[in-house]
Amino acid sequence: MQRTTMIAKLALLLATIIWGSSFIIMKDALDDMGTFFLLAFRFAGACLLLAVIFQKSLKQLNFYYLKAGFVMGTALIIAYSLQTFGLAETTPGKNAFLTAGYCVMVPFFYWMIAGRRPDRYNISAAVLCVAGIGLVSLDANLTMGRGDLLTILCGIFYALHIIVSARYTQNADVMLLTIVQFFFAAVWSGAACLLFEPFPDLGAVPTYTWFSLLYLCVFATAGALGLQTYGLKYTAPSAGALILSLESVFGVIFSVILGAEALTPRLCLGFAIIFSGIVVSETKLDFIHKKKVTKGELEKT
Q: S-S: 79 plus which of 121, 148, 157, 287, CB 3.0-4.6 Å?
């Protein structure tokens, strides 16, 4: 069981690295097509790919998978839509770090659902996170850009998605559940594309944008979300949220390397405070307590 848990955590870590690289790719793709078309292509392609690879799992499809997939897919597409619209109006690094606020939200949503009250560490982390978000998002006039606000809102639905994923994956085929949630996410985004967006001129879309879409579809969706669904099955929601928060770190790293982000001292301080809040919320500072206990035991001996 310990080996399975370790593999699950490594799966979550790999997912964060892939997602961290996808922020800058997604932002470039949005220059050539609408948000909902990008998401519809991304989820439909990932759904089809996984359905072909894991077609034997489709025989288990029943009402439970349809219900779970509908709930997970709906939360997922709302989160992705808000994040993608936010990304169009802010930088990849800020988008990545503000999205990571969902890790602090998880204990509070879990309180609403399971009745387990957040402890002092969760509350302290929430205060730190809000302070960090203020440094990252507010400009000199103390106003927040629409892209930043949409990104913060997307974190609410990512938190809900983590909680429902942890619940529904316990007694289910992970890959079948991933396929079904992708299906519903594709349906929602496809419908929104037809209703609210002009269809892009596919012939005018550059070749490199198609390669970007292929990367988003295969690696950042089918691969990374499959890894997340598997990882959350064998990892506690709070621990899983901490690992997934590293997506923001990798997002900034890739953004800086590719020249899309200029790091200012204020931005770095905001990132550090947000990340500190996430660590406090998810570790309860156990690493400090363990050091104190170990030191005390050594003094007794």
A: 157
Phi/psi at 138 (5° precision): -80, 135
DSSP 138: B
Around Cβ 279, how many Cβ atoms within 10 Å? 18
Contact 180, 254 (CB under 8 A): no
Which residue reads 């990892």 in tokens?
A: 235
Closest CA to 90 of 37, 152, 18, 156: 152
Q: Which residues of 148-159 are buried (b: 16+ CB within 10 A; e: fewer)?
A: bbbbbbbbbbbb
Contact 77, 43 (CB under 8 A): yes
- pLDDT, one tens digit per residue, over 158-214 is 888 888 887 888 788 888 998 999 999 999 999 999 999 888 888 888 998 999 999
Whether the CB-CB separation of 230 and 166 falls below 8 Å is answered with no
Q: For residues 161 and 165, give the distance between their C-alpha atoms in angstroms, rounded to a whole number.
A: 6
Phi, psi of 258 (to 5 degrees): -90, 5
| CA proximity to 238, closest of 284, 205, 270, 192 | 284
Which two structure tokens, joined as six digits, stand for 8? 């699950």
d(CA 172, CA 61): 10
- Residues 6 or more apart whose CB falls under 8 angstroms from that of 260 comprise 24, 27, 91, 92, 93
CB neighbour burial string for 171-195, b if at least 16 within 10 angstroms, e if fewer: ebbbbbbbbbbbbbbbbbbbebbee
223 vs 11, 16, 64, 187, CA distance in Å? Answer: 10, 11, 23, 20
* CA gap 264, 118 in Å, rounded: 33
Cβ atoms within 10 A of the Cβ of 282, count? 24
